[in-house]
Amino acid sequence: MLVTGSAGGIGKAMVRAFAEEGARVIAADLQEDANRALAASLGDAVVPLELDVTSEERWMEVFAQADRDYGGIDVLVNNAGFFQPNIPFEDMPLKLWRLHFAINLDGTFLGCKHAIRHMKSRGGAIVNIGSGMSITANPTASAYCAAKAAVLMTTRTAAANAGRYGVRVNAVLPGAVPTGMLMGNLAEGQSEENLLENLRSHSPLGRLATPEDIAAATLFLADPANAAVTGIYLPVDGGNMPGA
Ligand SMILES: NC(=O)c1ccc[n+]([C@@H]2O[C@H](COP(=O)([O-])OP(=O)(O)OC[C@H]3O[C@@H](n4cnc5c(N)ncnc54)[C@H](O)[C@@H]3O)[C@@H](O)[C@H]2O)c1
Fold first, then answer.
1. Candidates 70, 144, 165, 233; catalytic one
2. Does domain 2-232 have CATH number 3.40.50.720?
3. What is the end-to-end Cα distance of the chain in Å, rounded?
């Protein structure tokens, strides 16, 4: 199986969770050093790989390499993401808007496209990582919300197309998860604890989702035991219900 964004907070937990289930994990990220350190800490089951998810050429090389060296890929998790918070809608530079789309959406599209080609003859499962912001409008996250909303429809169109090959495509929508990406949301002068407490206050469970919670939901959707599940999205967010 292959996880993108494997050097990030959620990606690392996914690599660990799949490796603990006995999978051979290709850990793919731009950050080669962090990726290699992760692989070294987990033993032979994890293979670090440099991948820029926005490069179609690299995706094609990676699947060809997986065929040649590892007997193919049965599960792909499109987890790599990018978020620059706190930019009012009217101040969003076009270049930054496009960067959100390139990493979050083009990266997911390219992964799905080449995984479906690769899995056509053998079946498989793809899990795309959207966001709570795929379905909620944040006034200072216009590009991220739009790109992550498009990840949902990409999941559904890919699922509608690939079902005939026995390939399932689903999405997990994490709520706020304490990682480097979330901490980028700190307002000026705000403490980490204050941000986390504020986010926790929306959860009936009184907790945020952890990277391990996101990994567990991803494992569920990738599991061949759930062969009748495709085209869905699963929010994993502590039951985030503003106003509840
Ligand atoms: N942390 C949260 O609160 C939260 C909430 C909702 C959704 N998500 C989503 O979960 C996923 C993982 O987020 P995270 O919190 O672990 O973030 P993170 O910033 O810790 O990790 C993101 C990883 O993606 C990698 N990456 C970025 N651009 C890339 C590219 N072009 N090619 C390959 N890798 C690239 C980075 O190197 C990094 O390792 C993302 O898709 C993110 O949008 C996170």
1. 144
2. yes
3. 38
